[in-house]
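Q: What would this chain look like folded?
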Amino acid sequence: MGNNKWFTVTGEPSAASEARRKVLEEFQDLEFYADSHSYVLQGKMLPSVTNVAHRFIREPFDEQRQAARYAERHGQTPDYWLQQWRQNSFRATTLGTKTHAYGESLGYLRAGMPERICPSMQRQYMPQYGFLAPIHPKEESVLKFMNEMPDSMHLVLNEAQVYSGKNPSEARNLRQQLAGTFDMLYYNDGSDGQPEGFMILDYKTNACLSNDYNRRYGRMLLPPFADMTEEDLSLYTIQLSLYALMLEDIGIRIVSRRIVWLRDCEYQVIPVADVSEKLRQVL
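A: My prediction, written as structure tokens:
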């Protein structure tokens, strides 16, 4: 499970310690290869949560066709627009990866574990002050989010890999086994007035989560999510429920699923619906 070795946080509730032990123990046989972003369990490659969520898109983006249409309307060649789109996508993905590394590192630093700061973040760390310097507006957003997190929230794990098929009731397991990596699992002790229990959160760095065009013209996902607009917010709702059901299969009840949408120097926490029962029926 990557660098998620056993650890405890001083003063944490026993529920957080026990959940961490359970996750690391139950999923320790899953191999994750970051370069190819692939998951292997006992020699078998598993589809990722992200790819599975995209199966519900009614009309997947046809890059070649759209590039040709865009060139007709705006000039240049299709290859020119393909290059522009791929470069923009690469830029966004690279920024997202760096921001996630900052968030993971800052979470562990705040929990008193500077030794778990990601290697890629070491140059931003000032050990004499316990300061992990944000050098991009998205990282400023993460810092603001962490600074404003209530004391009731206790870190369980960051960037942990999980897979389906662990429910003791075979009828509750997904028919197809899949795997994924969630960004954050926290335990809320209830002292802030929020429900006590485990919360799964994911950082998102998209410029926009909704799709105004699809909302205007009623472009929806495939069943059983035909009541959800085809947009990133819907796909992320599915992803978080998939992560949550994998944790619930090993007895960790998730009381909240939230997107932490990182804007430039600001953030928004967005609760999303639980659609796990629909997923159990269709996958």
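DSSP finds eight helices and ten strands in the chain.
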